[in-house]
Amino acid sequence: MMIVILAVGVVFFMIPTICSSWLIMKKRKGKGRQCKTLFNMSSKATRLKHYSKAKEIDENGENSELQFFDLSIVIAATNNFSFTNKLGRGGFGTVYKGLLSNGQEIAVKRLSRNSGQGVEEFKNEVTLIAKLQHKNLVKLLSCCIEEEEKMLIYEYLPNKSFDYFIFDETKRSMLTWRKRFEIIIGIARGILYLHQDSRLRIIHRDLKASNILLDIDMIPKISDFGMARLFGKNQVEGSTNRVVGTYGYMSPEYAMEGLFSIKSDVYSFGVLLLEIITGRRNSTYYHDSPSFNLVGCVWSLWREGKALDIVDPSLEKSNHANEVLRCIQIGLLCVQESAIDRPTMLTIIFMLADMAEASGEDMAEAIAIPFFSCALFVFTHLISERYCDSAVRYRKPSLDPKR
């Protein structure tokens, strides 16, 4: 009898305990289910957010969704980043040629782990390029972010970068004046799109010959947007304490004060224009010029009425002396000391278009190019990739080139 009583007591004692435990477990399970639901909703919202951004429609009304590649696909395409696939190396990493399983050729920009370009610059480049669609801008196909790897996958351009041609004595002889003029206009149109015609206003900040790529038809495409800055439509100027870019292509106000605007890119375009005409680097040391660089040397010759003396010798037999001279004048307009005095890319496009339509004696009447004053960069040491000890000297010579 005592055993029965004890058993009943134990049962009555266990029932509340079991029920309580069951309720607690159910409550926890419910919370877990709720957390899982919230997590899924959050993840879904995040995916939808990224998806909606990726599905934005470009200016031509086409889908501009950005694909993401697995690391294994990129490794297979580049033969595990083999040396034979290496196309070149920039400030932020190495570029490799790749071949996808469907036969499409790609260029893979592999961000160096110890480079100055971190996650922010990488995201910046992806965000900007994915929204840009223009004939004279390199096309971003995909990107890869896996483990410690960050990579951008671009269209492959077989003719490499423009500096590969223009600064090589043999290869630049292949560039007739007509082809160089087409490249000049193409670069100008690409910059104009960034400054004015795209949905966003973008300052590139690192325009130079090595960042101009050439496709199979030698059509120029602007690349490398890691240093680019996004402006609001009404914003005209920005500033930074971290000056990035390439000395020799930097405008005076940006190199010395960190101020940048669309006129900073105009300055870089002017330097690039003079390099295309002469086949020489702006950073080349000129012993016979008081300014020691290409911009100053061209300006000195312009004042003496001898600007054609510095034109690439391979163009000497060209019958386009008037066009070349006008392009030199436009280049000098772009590298003026004051940003306010420099023309906009739209004005430059108009001047170049007028040149393309005019010829011979009609050239002077067709183009009304203003006078200019020029800023001369004087470097006290030769420019290196990592360091430049520079001094800048400005002077405003006579506006009359014959004086």
From TrEMBL:
The keyword Lyase does not apply. Residues 81-372 form the Protein kinase domain. ATP binds at K109. CDD domains: STKc_IRAK. It comes from the Eukaryota. It holds the Pfam family PK_Tyr_Ser-Thr. Keywords: ATP-binding, Kinase, Nucleotide-binding, Serine/threonine-protein kinase, Transferase. Belongs to the protein kinase superfamily. PANTHER family: G-TYPE LECTIN S-RECEPTOR-LIKE SERINE_THREONINE-PROTEIN KINASE RKS1, RECEPTOR-LIKE SERINE/THREONINE-PROTEIN KINASE SD1-8. This is Protein kinase domain-containing protein.
